[in-house]
Amino acid sequence: xxxxxxxxGKARRAARVGKEEESQIVVPAANQRQEGSLEVMMQxxxxxxATPQYCKHGLAPSPSTEEEICLEFIHTFIEVFTxxxxxxxxxxxxxxxxxxxxxxxFDDVYYSSKLETVISxxxxxxxxxxxxxxxxxxxxxxxxxYFFQQWMEVQVKESKAICIWSKVYELHVADDHxxxxxxxxxxxCSCLDKKYEEVKSVKKMGLCYNPKCSLPGRxxxxxxxxxxxxxxxxxxxSVECQKNDWKKHRQFCNRIVAKKAxxxxxxxx
Length: 269
Known about the structure:
globular; two-stranded antiparallel ribbon; two-stranded antiparallel sheet; mainly alpha
């Protein structure tokens, strides 16, 4: 395990990887978030769980003190993340800025198993938000849950070379099918089964990584998209868009390929 100082440096570099690839993707507006929504969800999930028909959506049990720390961490992260709207212009930049602002205070969360509790809280709360019809905040919780899962695998467990940012972007602008399927696969209950049946016919949409793509919202049916076969991190709506973006994407692509190669070499030695 690297030192905290070194790990934080790696974290900042990891958060910057891919920023250039999604400069057109903006963060959710802060004033659209329901104040206190996380706390409300947690009260319903924890304190009402004694009711037989009430489901906690797989919320993992944890000591009350750890739960309080994790809730404070999530609340702070969301407050800082959403406040970056209008200051920074992308999901990656907002996450990077939030990491910088919160790492010192929550060092013990970022580099410990407490992240598993954080992810569990976000998934359970996000599931309830979907059931309540609040897909806007459910997307935000999905973005954060996925990012923290990636962070844990890269920075804590060191089982992966890089964060897969393409999924973060897709969750940020997710269609109903993608959003509900994401949660449904990660909870232990069947609470989203009915919702999934309602949306499974919706075509899953992907985001073209050419910022000059002419498609509305740069979106296209995901199954028809082209992926960069070198880095496997970005996708395009057409070969033409991929070629037009190559000059911009090339440096990013080279960095990712080199980082993955170095990681694989280190694991083999």
